[in-house]
Amino acid sequence: MTNKIDTDMVKHVANLVRLGISEEEAQTFSGQFSSIIDYFNMLNEVDTENVPPASDTTNNTNVLREDVAEPSMSRVEFLDNAPQSERGYIKVPTVLGDES
Amino acid sequence: MQLHTLTLREASEMLATKQISSVELTQATLQRAHEIDPKIQSYVTLADDVALEQAKQADERIAKGKDLTPLTGIPFAMKDAISTRGVRTTCSSKILENYVPQYNATVTQKLADAGAVLIGKTNMDEFGMGSSCENSALFKTRNPWNLERVPGGSSGGAAASMAAGLCNFSIGEDTGGSVRMPAGFCNVTGIKPTYGRVSRYGLISLVSSFDCIGPMTRDVYDCATVLETIAGHDPQDSTTFNSPVPQYNQNLNKTVKGMTIGIPKEYFVSGMDAGVENAIQQAIRTYEKLGMKIQEVSLPHTQYALPVYYLLLFAEASSNLARFDGTRFGLSASENAKDVIDIYLQTRHEGFGDEVKRRIMLGAYALSAGYYDAYYLKAQKVRTLLRRDFELALSSVDILLAPTSPTTAFKLGEKTNNPLEMYLSDIYVVATNPAGVPALALPAGFSNNMPVGMQLIGKHLDEQTLFQVGHAYQQVTDWHKQNPVIGD
Amino acid sequence: MTQYEPVIGLEIHAELQTRSKMFCSCSADYSNAPEPNTFICPVCTGLPGAMPVLNKKAIEQATLVGLSLNCSINEFNTFARKNYFYPDLPKGYQISQYDLPIASKGWLDILDDTDSPMRVVVRRVHLEEDTAKLAHEKNYALVDFNRAGVPLLEIVSEPDMRTVEAALSYATKIRAILRYLGVNSGDMEKGILRFEANVSVRPRGSSELRTRTEIKNLNSFRALTRASAYEIERQIKVYENGGEVVQETLGWDEAHGVTISQRGKEDAHDYRYFPEPDLPPLQLDRNWINSIKNQLPELPDAKNRRFMEQYELKRREASLLTAEKSLADYFEEVVSKSKSSAKTVHSWLTGEFMRYMNDSGQTLEDITLSAAQFAQLIDMVTDKSISGNSGKVVLNEMLNAKRNCDPSQIVKEKNLAQVSDTGFIQEAIEKILSDNPREVEQFLAGKETIVQWLMGQVARATKGKADPNIAKDLLVKTLEARRK
Ligand SMILES: [Mg+2]
Ligand SMILES: [Zn+2]
Predict the structure, then answer these.
(1) C306 and C447 within one domain
(2) Chain B residues in contact with A43 (beta carbon < 8 A)
(3) pLDDT over threshold 80, residue B306
(4) How many structural domains is chain B composed of?
(5) Which tens digit of pLDDT belongs to each residue from A7-25?
(6) Which pLDDT score is estimated for C420?
(7) What is the mean pLDDT of chain B?
(8) Do C284 and C172 share a domain, yes or no?
(9) Is the per-residue pLDDT at C263 higher than 80?
(10) Is the dihedral of CA C156, C161, C164, C169 positive or negative?
(11) How far apart are CA A2 and CA A8, in angstroms?
(12) Is residue C417 a contact partner of residue C462, using CB atoms and an 8 Å limit?
């Protein structure tokens, strides 16, 4: 399969990861993406019938912690790192819509 | 006395016998860093105050003779992807340029508990995305062996600081060769431990299922010492192993006679520099002289390692980097943002470099509806095959031997315009990370006055054999003892 | 004209009441946090490098819920990242479960609008983390991460409900079960339990599934019923006008009683789920699942059946008690300590006692009256040592007293003991009849109903202490005597 990644697709994925990009950047990325994705398409040669996906190499299972509450970190330091805060809250610009 | 070429072990002995204090050693290291590093630019931050305070405390520990470890009082450098409480941690990105963590990574804490002295934080490709350190958004690090050349990446600053004698050991992080490749380019010893051997808690994630923190040192002995300190189960990282950490250095001198080295035939095809190949062949002959058997093995899916590695990297990174949104820490476009979407778009546009942008967009693509099966899932399946390749090959031999790169360090700017060609420079080091197996990089000679690196790849959790075989090599060679003359 | 039939499915979000959060050790008791952003750590605020560690208790509680809804527990469980950007989601992804949830394919029997039993299929139960709390101000928003990372259970039904009443019945029952299990307080005002309804309509008799809309953030039973009813009507109108229903997410405007379209999404949700690489999978073995099964308490349905049988109650009577486990337990305790019949205890409990709770806005947890003393009071009425009315007075006294007190003491203090001394009652009757000659005339003229009025006068004059049966006997006899 060949996937030409046009500028519309570039803008679509840029929006998915909330990345502002200019028209010019979209053009540049479009060219680069197509050659990279072309290269990835070599995986199609590999027969993966009956091969399970591997998302983990440790084979760990059931790593759990006891339900014990512990003291929190410093709010002052947390808010010091924040660009904007107010009355102990993190402050952000107007929120439109509901994404969740 | 040349303080800056001391091994960790030598420095530790001098501290223990009170030939020098930690404060003196630390001051000398910092002074050299302030003099030399402007040429190399290996450090993003020099933590003079923290270092001197820790050195003072180390001296008190040494004076009392209590709680001493091999690292007490030893100056070290930390890759800037690992959180250090109170010390700026940038990941060499504009988006974190002024971020000061309010907590320590587990590795940072373990080193502090051992009494090691944090000199500073080292430069890297932004968020670990690169193979030359040229993708740092702050500045480019140079190779101490030739200032026109790259140190490799992404732990380029870590390798360069080590090679230039600006610390006694250095902590790097290897997602797909990021310790081994720069170690090879800079004539440094370094290990990518088994995935899960060292806690990632506090390491700013690039690829959660590949990332491995590993030390960079002057020799195998030091490497084993540092790994022993930082390895082990961490209740805050569910992907760490529960098994105990061996005392690696106790078995370092065991003979390698009769052991078998596997040579993956797929790694010795076209594309490798003659000088590199020559050095590696010589290393193989050295091992033969030590009584080891050499056997050709096959890793049949090697050519697919690169697409598997990059696809999975893009996917996980696109998610891991979502938290850099300008609302809680780091760079923020909150001043001009008209709404919250705007703050995301602007912050991330300004804060991320081109390589980061490319990768997170491609990651979203590989995970998005309609492409998931063809890219992400397919890569996870081929990953299983890569892992089986290593298991099978390592079932008939003790370790594998391969170069760390097809070439020696290339020139700055040589590959920056072609992302795909840059990706290809990682061809020998990326496969181990999807497979999770450990690999030790060590100096193997020179080609045109630039270092050549080789790597030994071992079985899951068998760092011990890697150290043993690596140490045997360093007993009969002195490549690792060569130091660069820092030019202008 | 086409008759339309609603098709409703519910998604129920229930916070689990663990001590610590899902993936970190911060307290999960956010509604009692002293200040915003005080129950926080690197993990639940999404600081760079922080990693999740799974809370064992959350897994146990989720399994309990799955089992109580007749689900099969999946022995192999994984977590997944759901990727989207929102300021209440610190990591830019929510750790949730996707293709391998903790429980799936269960069912719950409910009563529909005609009180006939029906079965709702529970598609899945999965665990995820709650988001932070967002307060919208005029030109900005404020974020409090105290709630971020609290374990949240998502219970998803199939679109099996055909009426708003059935949906309400299902939601009510889920809430009761969660409270029985002790995993959720059922508090909807605080958002500890919240609903989402998927609604579509189709011509009656058809089996097609038409385009549905999702109504989010329904924070009360009232909102659930009103919003679903509104949406059903709206969709029917759309079809009647020849239009098409658009698949979209809606909000519920409680003040205006309308559903409103959330801002249109340029990119239809593409959450890019993939396995969470920071969390190894869960392998739940049979023995462990059985050990959780053994912790299951008697659930509302079983309790209801037992109450009907053991206490000879009608279904409605039993379900009044079993809706809340604490009430059912209290009932059983009173019955066990009382000599009166279970029916009598039931009518006291569901009568005056519940009236008191409703009027005072108290819950059973606020009540200090011990079962033993309640039983003692009921028995005093049963054996006629006080009148029923006096019993109500004493009960209210005891409930108001906010402490344990002896009902016989109150009876003595208030002089409420019932009198069967005929001399004392006769005296009172004589006085009433001579004070009310007109009413006596009316009786003699044949208006027998006046007896009731005169009985009231007797009760008042004797302060309720006169045994009503004796009093009535005497009153009628005395009146009849006047005929001669
Ligand atoms: Mg959900
Ligand atoms: Zn927390």
Answers:
(1) no
(2) 304, 307-308, 311, 375, 378-379, 382
(3) yes
(4) 1
(5) 999 999 999 999 999 999 9
(6) 66
(7) 96
(8) yes
(9) no
(10) negative
(11) 16
(12) no
Q: The domain containing residue B324 runs over which residues? A: 1-488
C80 in the same domain as C187: yes
Distance C146 CA to ligand 2 centre (A): 8
Ligand 1 midpoint to CA C155 (Å): 9
B124 vs B147: CA distance, rounded Å: 16
What was the pLDDT predicted at C403?
Answer: 66
CATH number of the structural domain spanning residue A12: 1.10.20
Distance from the Cα of C47 to chain A's closest Cα (Å) equals 9
Q: How confident is residue A1, by pLDDT bands cut at 50, 70 and 90? A: very low
β-bridge partners, B455: B402, B441
Answer yes or no: is A35 within a domain.
yes
Whether C40 and A72 lie within 8 Å, measured CB to CB = yes
pLDDT > 90 fraction of chain B, expressed in percent and rounded: 93
Question: CA B213, CA B227: separation in Å to the nearest integer?
Answer: 9
Residue B287 DSSP code: H
Q: What is the CATH number of the domain that holds C445?
A: 1.10.10.410
How many structural domains does chain C have? Answer: 3
**Inter-chain Cβ pairs, chain A and chain B, closer than 8 A:** 170
Q: Tell me, yes or no, whether A72 lies in a domain.
A: no
pLDDT, one tens digit per residue, over B324-339 is: 999 999 999 988 889 9
Q: What SS3 state is found at B84?
A: strand
Whether the Cβ atoms of residue B92 and residue B102 lie closer than 8 Å to each other: no
Subunits adjacent to chain C (3 or more Cβ pairs under 8 Å): A, B
Q: Which amino acid makes up residue B334?
A: S
C72 Cα to the center of ligand 1, angstroms: 20
Query: Which tokens go with C335?
Result: 């019955």
Let me know whether C408 and C439 are in one domain: no
> Strand pairing of C140-144 and A89-93?
antiparallel
Quick check: A83 contacting C, CB < 8 Å? Answer: no
Query: C129 with C152: CB under 8 angstroms?
Result: yes
Tokens 């099966």 appear where? B373
**Domain containing residue B166: CATH number:** 3.90.1300.10
> pLDDT tens digit string along C425-444?
888 888 888 898 898 888 88
Cα(B87) to ligand 2 centroid in Å equals 22
User: In terms of residue numbers, what domain contains C445?
Assistant: 422-483
pLDDT in tens, B289-302: 999 999 999 999 99
Higher-confidence position of B443 and C410: B443
* Angle made by CA atoms C247, C250, C252, in degrees to the nearest 5: 155
Any A CB within 8 A of B19 CB: no
The nearest CA of chain C is from the CA of A42 a distance in Å of: 22
How many Å separate Cα B252 from the centre of its chain? 22
From the CA of C84, which ligand is nearest? 1
- Closest chain C residue to B84 measured between Cα atoms? C49
Predicted local distance difference test score (pLDDT) of residue C264? 52
Contact indicator for B176, B433 with CB cutoff of 8 Å: yes
The answer to whether residue A98 scores a pLDDT higher than 60 is: no
Minimum mean pLDDT among B260-264, B313-317, B390-394, C445-449: which range? C445-449
Residue span of the structural domain in which A24 resides: 7-45
> CB-based contacts of B380: which residues, under 8 Å, 6+ apart?
A53, A54, A55, B312
Please give the model's pTM, rounded to 2 decimal places.
Answer: 0.91
pLDDT mean over C282-296: 95
Mean pLDDT of B168-185: 97
Same domain, C67 and C156: yes
Among A66, A97, B173, which residue's Cα sits nearest to residue C19? Answer: A66
Nearest bound ligand to CA C124? 1
Interface pTM (ipTM) of the complex? 0.96
B356 and chain A in contact, CB less than 8 A: no
Whether the predicted pLDDT of C266 surpasses 70: no
Q: Is pLDDT above 50 for C93?
A: yes
Q: Please state, in angstroms and rounded to a whole number, the distance separating the CA atoms of residues C346 and C238.
A: 49
- Token output for C167: 């949906």
